[in-house]
Structure formats: structure tokens, C-alpha cells
Amino acid sequence: MATSTTIPITHETPRVLLYAIERIVAISAVRRACIVTQKVFETMVKGDHFTKSDESPVTVGDFAAQALISQIIHTVFPDDPIVGEEDASELYSPEKKEILHNITSIVNEGLTADRLDYEKEDWAIGLGRDISPQEVRENIDRGKHNGGNVGRMWTIDPIDGTKGFLRGGQYAVCVSLILDGEPVVGVIGCPNLPHDLNNPEGKKGWIFSAVKEQGAQRFTINGLDPIPLGMPSVSPESIVVLESVESGHSSHSFNSRVRELLTLKEPSLQMDSQAKYCSLAMGRGHLYLRMPTRPDYEEKIWDHAPGALLIKEAGGQVTDSRGKQLNFGLGRTLGKNYGVVACGSEVHSRVIDSVQAALEESRERAKMN
Ligand SMILES: Nc1ncnc2c1ncn2[C@@H]1O[C@H](COP(=O)(O)OS(=O)(=O)O)[C@@H](OP(=O)(O)O)[C@H]1O
Ligand SMILES: [Mg+2]
Ligand SMILES: [Mg+2]
Ligand SMILES: [Mg+2]
Predict the structure, then answer these.
(1) Where along the chain is Mg(2+) bound (predicted)?
(2) Which of 15, 218, 275, 325 is 20 to 30 A from residue 100's alpha carbon, by CA?
């Protein structure tokens, strides 16, 4: 849909306008998806989920949030492909009809929720229209794109950290725009992240956004007063490591060896989802370390694209364990898994050296066994 607010991008366009509409559309979609997932959490029978073929959980919230985000993006950018985590294959059988209807009414609540000021622009014309169960499935299945390194594509992780979501812990609603294999817009909603980290029982909900070469900000979930993000520098011995809650997703034992090699004193901070990247960008934690627990697992692009851009734009560095850039142009995954290391630029090379030393030790141990 062409909108009158679509700004033509020419070589004369001031840089600050690049991706302005994409950013605001992603923020709107993420905020509305957060409304939906919070609603699902409040109303669902605790822990209610389906199990996917890879044994991982998926909830009504994951389906609803992906349908809603895909609907909003597709209305404004109908030619852009989408790489989304979920597919609707579960939602075609007659016995799932009631669940599909539940998902549809939750999606429509999200689409028709009151508009904030930034949603009163022409691009938001599609908001406020109810969609049908069939459209819900089509929106979810639009996420089947295979990725690649040519042109524009969006990623959607409707609930990152589904296990965290089910536990009432941290989770994140994650959207990115990738151009020629490189993330250029990233938006992450963290409904359960406290406004004041020292008051975990107080108000909650942050949205984080980053645009390539335009910096990164956070703002409260219903506002748009941006607080710029810049990672504070940290002395190497004061580093706090951020890691997954699930030890099956990232090796805790490897991380603890790296902490020994770096002579860190602080305990690591375990947190679900890309909320780790957000926490890092806010200076709560200084090193996100994610090393594979299984040789065959390939990290998914939607689990890292917005978070990696957020860290870069906040002044940090994100690489694999060899210090190489993550490659978002290989398809739906990052390819062979060499882990992820995200931290401040001033400590990055020291961290990579320790990670490589710990890897060498594991190889030596494996040879002896
Ligand atoms: N074996 C294995 N290794 C590495 N990563 C895996 C693995 N299995 C799953 N996943 C992905 O982990 C995503 C959840 O992120 P985290 O591990 O950071 O959070 S958590 O501690 O699991 O809550 C999770 O994202 P969601 O499915 O969106 O929750 C998965 O994509
Ligand atoms: Mg995920
Ligand atoms: Mg997910
Ligand atoms: Mg999942």
C-alpha cells in the first residue's frame, strides 16, 4: 500500500530519514504484539502450550503475535518477504478450529487497540480492521521465506524465550528488517522488564529500537520519549556475564570456565530471550556469551538480528566465538554454530582470547577421552 507519508529515499535524503517509516511500523507492531502476549499470559491456563516437532514449545501467544506483526508489516510493505519463526500448519485441522478462533479474536484486539500519537499517520490505515481466521493463518504462513543475502526481508520472533514466557520470566517480541544480509532496523519489546531495575515489582515494559548508523534507544511500552542507549565501559574484572536460563540452549559450564579465565568475581546473570541483548545495551550485564550445546544446532536469524543491531548501535560488538561477524544472509539460520559473543568494544578482543583458550582446553580434553 502506497502511503502519502512514505518518504522517497534518494541520495539527497538526509540520513536520519532512512528507515523512519520502517522503524515506526516495527515499533507499532511490536507494541501491539506485546499487548496480545500479555493478554494471553493473563488469561491462559498456566503453562498451556503445544509441542513442535523439534520438541520446543509454542503457545497461542506466539501464533497471535506473529499473525499481528505480519499483518501490520504486510499492509505497509506488501512486497517485503518475511522470515518468521512460526508456521500455521497446526491450525488447519478441524479440531483446532476453536483455538484458531481464540487466536483470531486476540489478534483483532491487538489490531484495534487505541492508537498512540505515532499511529495517527497514513501508514497506520490498516490498523483498526478486524481480520478473519483464514487471514490469521495466511499472515502466520507469510513467515515461511527462506532468507538470503539479496534485498529486503523482515524477521519476526513473536515470542523469543517461549519457555521464559511460560514461566512468567523474561521474554521478548522481536522484529528486524534486513537489507542484503545486514540488519538495518531492529525492535525488541520486553513486557516483563522492570522500568526501574532496582524495583523489580514496580512498573514493567520497555521497547528497544535501533537503526543502522542512527543509534539505539529505549522507551516505555506506551510512550515514545526515547532514552538513548550507549554501553558504559567496564573494567575487565568487573564484567557480569549474561546467559540463557536454559542450559540446553547455551553451555553454562563453558561460560563458567571463561569466567575463570577472565578472573571474574561477579556471578553470571541468567535471563531468557533477547532481553539479554537489551539488558546489555542498558549496561546491566556486560557480556552475552552463548556457546552451542549441540554440534548440529544452527542459531536462527530471528533470535539475533535485532539484538545484534541494538548492541552495535549502542557502541558494542557482536561476533561469533572466532571474532567473525554474524552472517544474516545465509538463510533462516546463521549456519554452522560458532557461538555468539556480544560485549563492549574495549573488552571484546580479551573475551575472544579467553573463549578460544577455553575451546582449546575442551578440544584437548576430548582428545584424551
Ligand atoms: N539447542 C539449542 N541451542 C541454542 N538455542 C536454542 C536451542 N533450542 C532452542 N533454541 C533457541 O533459544 C531461544 C531462546 O533463547 P534463550 O536461550 O536466550 O532463552 S531461554 O533461556 O531459553 O529462555 C529459542 O527461541 P524461542 O523458540 O523463540 O523461545 C530458540 O530459538
Ligand atoms: Mg527465539
Ligand atoms: Mg519464538
Ligand atoms: Mg520457539
Answers:
(1) 85, 157, 159-160, 303
(2) 275
Q: Which DSSP string do the residues of 281-343 spell out, in sequence order?
A: HTTS-SEEEE--SSTT---BGGGTHHHHHHHHHTTEEEE-TTSPPP-TTSSSB-SS---EEEE
What are the grid coordinates assigned to 212, written together? 543502522
Give the separation between CA 181 and CA 171, rounded to whole angstroms: 25
CATH of domain 15-228: 3.30.540.10
Ligand 1 center–CA 299 separation, angstroms = 9
Residues touching ligand 1 (Cβ under 6 Å) are 56, 85, 157, 159-164, 244-246, 248-250, 272-273, 293-294, 297, 300, 303
Residue that has been written with the C-alpha cell 538513548 in this structure: 228
CA distance 251 to 241: 13
pLDDT tens for each residue of 213-246: 999 999 999 887 899 999 999 988 899 999 999 9
CB 187 within 8 A of CB 23: yes
Nearest CA to ligand 1 atom 18: 273
Q: What is the pLDDT of residue 17?
A: 77
**Could you give the CA distance from residue 352 to residue 358 in angstroms, rounded to a whole number?**
10
Pick the atom of ligand 1 nearest to 245's CA: 21
d(CA 105, CA 42): 15
* Cβ atoms of 321 and 352 closer than 8 Å: yes
- DSSP character at residue 169: S
pLDDT digits (tens, 9 = 90+) for 93-116: 999 999 999 999 999 999 999 999
Within 13 Å and on the Cβ side, how many CA atoms surround 125? 11
157 has binding-site annotation: yes
Signed CA dihedral, 109, 192, 178, 89: sign only: negative
Please determine, for the modelled complex, whether the ipTM score is greater than 0.90: yes
Domain boundaries of the chain, sorted by first residue = 15-228, 236-368
